[in-house]
Amino acid sequence: MSERILVVDDEKNIRRTVGMILEGEGYEVLAAESGEAGLRLLERHEIDLVILDVNLPGIQGIDLLRQVKAADADRMVVMISGQGTVRVAVEATRAGAFDFLEKPLTKERIVVAVSNALRFRRMGREWRTFKDRESRRHAMIGSSSELERIREEIARVGPTTARVLILGESGTGKELIARAIHDASERRAGPFVKVNCAAIPEELIESELFGAVKGAYTGADRSRDGKFQQADGGTLFLDEIGDMSQKAQAKVLRALQEGEIEKVGGSETLKVDVRVIAATNKNLESEVAAGRFREDLFFRLNVVPIRAVPLRERRDDVPGLAQHFLERFRVENNRPEMSFTDGALAALSQRAWPGNVRELENAVERLAIMSRTRSIGVDDLPRAGFGEISATRTASSPAGAERPSGIRGLAPDEIAALGGLVEVRRRFEAACIEACLAASEGNVSAAARMLGIDRTNLHKKIQSYAIDADRVQE
After folding, report:
1. What percentage of residues in the chain have a pLDDT greater than 70?
2. 6-50 tens-digit pLDDT
């Protein structure tokens, strides 16, 4: 549908001329000879833009402008006047007018002003849609007692200036907690900058955090700001800080103590105003005892600790999370309306989810893309890579001795078809490794912790099973 424009002017020739120009450009045009008539049309029709004369009988143009913007702040208004002055133009702009045109009007000026105003309106709507989508993406979904406890802690610590250390397994939503703290703080209008300390090579972490001057290292062909400067006036989220080198730890400590940084290769001291929130899936007290993490930095960061709860400890939230992710990925992939059956949600809730919310999110994304039906049932869940999932305990399973969720025994002919027990074991182990790498977004250290093996052993298995190297981060 074409955009609709209302022209309000007491001169008939102006209304007719402007209307003909805009209709020729493909717009739908309504016209009113007074402010009162314009208000009646605004009540009955969806109007995208108003072209409004300053001097009108009855309600004056500036007064009508204020009423139009009060009713709908997103509606565009272009003011026109035959006796334009700087004072009137400034007053109209302050009242919310997008543009101010002086009579006599030209076709080119009208078309440009209207086109710019409507493009600005569309951009505003797209930005709000994007913000709403991002807000939903970062929403903390669930009503379990554990999640309510986290929300209460965020509400208490958010408005303060205290540093927060978020503890928890990979995929438990530590970044969501950090963003919620930022949004609850007085810095919410400032930037939220995230750094994954585990994903950046040790030789680059300092320049990433503090910036670098031109020529500081090979390839530094220009001076660049680091994350501390980018987060100035806002919040810096240091994710997986337990993987940071001790040299970088010392510089972070200084930044926290003094509010000062130095770029790599530089000597100038720069002031920064940053609230630091850190997160880790490691036991930092053990890391301090082992000499791998600075004790003084730990004390600086651990002012208010918040524990992110693994999904297995808040299974009641699984159905809501699954439905939330399904709707999000359905929309993003242009799929029709979809939903889970009660049986499927019950089956999903039974899983241990070693990769936590991130694993559930990845699984639901696969289901949203691969499912052929609008109602996703238990029989559809294998498409998420789980194998067969039963929504109820099998009759042969004694109470309290359920099989691990997502695992079933194979029939003898299936085992034979796969090449025997050794080959079945190899395939199962490879599938477990791929699932944990997916859940940890390729982080080998995190995947090794999920699997309960050391990092070196996992690297050997990745090579042995020829798992795609592009999925692996050091």
Report:
1. 89
2. 999 999 999 999 999 999 999 999 999 999 999 999 999 999 999
**With helix as H, strand as E and coil as C, how does 210-263 read?**
HCECCCCCCCCCCCECCHHHHCCCCEEEEECHHHCCHHHHHHHHHHHHHCEEEC
Query: What residues in the chain have per-residue pLDDT under 70?
Result: 1, 84, 131, 134-136, 218, 385-411, 413-414, 416-419, 468-474
Nearest alpha-carbon partner for 296 in 255, 253, 259, 261 = 253
How far apart are the C-alpha atoms of 147 and 255, rounded to whole Å? Answer: 32
| Distance separating alpha carbons of residues 133 and 117, to the nearest angstrom | 24
Give 8's strand partners: 32, 52
Neighbours of 388 (CB within 10 A): 12
Two tokens at 149?
A: 């406890």
Question: Which pLDDT belongs to residue 42?
Answer: 92
CA dihedral defined by 310, 313, 316, 319, rounded to 10 degrees? Answer: 30
Single out the residue of 363, 360, 372, 365 nearest to residue 329, CA to CA.
365
**Domains (range + CATH), the chain:** 4-134 (3.40.50.2300), 145-309 (3.40.50.300), 315-471 (1.10.8.60)
Helix (H, G, I), strand (E, B) or coil at 101: strand
What per-residue confidence (pLDDT) applies to 391?
A: 39
pTM metric for this prediction: 0.63
Identity of residue 432: C
What residues does 4 pair with on adjacent strands? 28
Burial class (CB in 10 A: 0-12, 13-18, 19+), 432: middle
